[in-house]
Amino acid sequence: MRWPHGIRTVCQQVRDHVTERVTTFTGLPVTAVDITVAALSDVSTPTGPRVV
């Protein structure tokens, strides 16, 4: 996730989207979606392929 983004806002948007899609695909209710932000990068950080 690139900083400065509202982390809570972005996570809630992702949570809502995943909940909707899983419910649409499976017909099952979703009770929780856990999100972990593994890293934040500054907007000045160059983007490119991630090498692991």
Integer average pLDDT: 84
Figure out the total of helices: 1
Helices and strands, in order, run as EHE
Number of domains: 1
Beta-strand content = 5-15%
**Overall outline:** elongated
Q: Strand pairing plus helix content: what structural class?
A: mainly alpha
Walk me through the structure.
There is one protein chain. The protein has one domain (2-40). 38% of the residues lie in helices and 8% in strands. The protein has a two-stranded parallel ribbon with strand order 1-2. The protein is built from one helix and two strands, in the order E-H-E.
Brief overview:
This protein has one helix spanning 7-26, and strands at residues 2-3, 41-42. Helix content is 38%, strand content 8%.
Secondary-structure blueprint of this entry?
Layout: E1 2-3, H1 7-26, E2 41-42
Parallel strand pairs: 1-2
Keywords:
single chain, 52 residues, mainly alpha, two-stranded parallel sheet, 1 helix, 2 strands, elongated
